Task: structure prediction
Amino acid sequence: MSIKALNSWFNNLDSEELAFLFPFEYEEAMMSCDPDEDINSFYKEVKQTWKVMTKEEKIKLYNELKEA
Result:
């Protein structure tokens, strides 16, 4: 699978799928007492995380979601 295809797949994930793949980040954002932390903060964080991941790490997440 190409990087372009992986990025396209990632960009089409909904919040439930992202929460499954990044549970710690989701819980951290949604349970925060900081009023500036919300679902948008979560999206920004996981998008940044995705950008720095290797192709192998991205494929692993892809496979995890497909198996769930």
User: Anything to note?
Assistant: The CA atoms of residues 32 and 38 lie 8 Å apart.
